[in-house]
Amino acid sequence: MQYQISGKQIDIGEALQTHVRDDLGAVVQKYAERPTNAQVVFSKSAHEFVCEATVHLSTGLTAQAKAHATEIYAAFDGCSEKMEKQLRRYKRRLKDHHKERAQPVELSGAASYILASDVGADDSEPETLQPMIVAEMETKIPSLSVGEAVMQMELAGAPVLVFRNEGKDGLNVVYRREDGNIGWIDP
C-alpha cells in the first residue's frame, strides 16, 4: 500500500510517519483485503491538531476519518480508531450480504460546481437568476448497488451521494435525512 503523509504548514517528523504507517497499515490489513493507497494530512486549528485520513480500497470504495486533539499523536490515534470502526462495519456488511465484488467499481466523469451563496447579502432583488459559479471541478460518479452506495456514503462521512444504479442504469441519489434515516431518490 502506498502512503502519502503530509502536514499543512507543520513539519511531520520521521517518527510520526513511521507510527502512521505501522498503525494504519495494521488496521487496514486487518479489515480490508486489498487497499491501494492512503493519504494522511495533519494540520493545526487554533490550539488543536487535526488529522484527516483517506484510504482507497481496490473495490473502488473510499473510507475517510477525521479527528482533533491537543497532541498530534492523539489526533492520529483518534482518526485511526474511527477508520478501524468504519472498516469493521464495511467488512461486516460484506459478510452479511455474502457478496464479494469481483470487479472494481466503474467510475464515470461529471462536472461539479460550487455556487456562491447569498448569505449576508442585502435584501435587494438580484440582477439575474443565474447563480455565480465560484469553482468548477471534475468529479467521478460510481456505478454501485443501492446498498453499496449507502455504505460508501457512510464510509466517506458524506451527507449525500450521487451514483449510477447498477440494476437500472440510471442516476440515483442517497442522502442522510434530518431524522437520521437514509433517503433514496430513484427517478
TrEMBL record:
<protein>
    <recommendedName>
        <fullName>Ribosome hibernation promoting factor</fullName>
    </recommendedName>
</protein>
<dbReference type="Pfam" id="PF16321">
    <property type="entry name" value="Ribosom_S30AE_C"/>
</dbReference>
<dbReference type="InterPro" id="IPR003489">
    <property type="entry name" value="RHF/RaiA"/>
</dbReference>
<dbReference type="GO" id="GO:0043024">
    <property type="term" value="F:ribosomal small subunit binding"/>
</dbReference>
<feature type="domain" description="Sigma 54 modulation/S30EA ribosomal protein C-terminal">
    <location>
        <begin position="130"/>
        <end position="183"/>
    </location>
</feature>
<keyword id="KW-0810">Translation regulation</keyword>
<dbReference type="GO" id="GO:0045900">
    <property type="term" value="P:negative regulation of translational elongation"/>
</dbReference>
<dbReference type="InterPro" id="IPR036567">
    <property type="entry name" value="RHF-like"/>
</dbReference>
<dbReference type="Pfam" id="PF02482">
    <property type="entry name" value="Ribosomal_S30AE"/>
</dbReference>
<comment type="subunit">
    <text>Interacts with 100S ribosomes.</text>
</comment>
<dbReference type="InterPro" id="IPR050574">
    <property type="entry name" value="HPF/YfiA_ribosome-assoc"/>
</dbReference>
<comment type="similarity">
    <text>Belongs to the HPF/YfiA ribosome-associated protein family. Long HPF subfamily.</text>
</comment>
<dbReference type="GO" id="GO:0022627">
    <property type="term" value="C:cytosolic small ribosomal subunit"/>
</dbReference>
<comment type="function">
    <text>Required for dimerization of active 70S ribosomes into 100S ribosomes in stationary phase; 100S ribosomes are translationally inactive and sometimes present during exponential growth.</text>
</comment>
<dbReference type="InterPro" id="IPR034694">
    <property type="entry name" value="HPF_long/plastid"/>
</dbReference>
<keyword id="KW-0963">Cytoplasm</keyword>
<dbReference type="InterPro" id="IPR032528">
    <property type="entry name" value="Ribosom_S30AE_C"/>
</dbReference>
<comment type="subunit">
    <text>Associates exclusively with 100S ribosomes, which are dimers of 70S ribosomes.</text>
</comment>
<dbReference type="InterPro" id="IPR038416">
    <property type="entry name" value="Ribosom_S30AE_C_sf"/>
</dbReference>
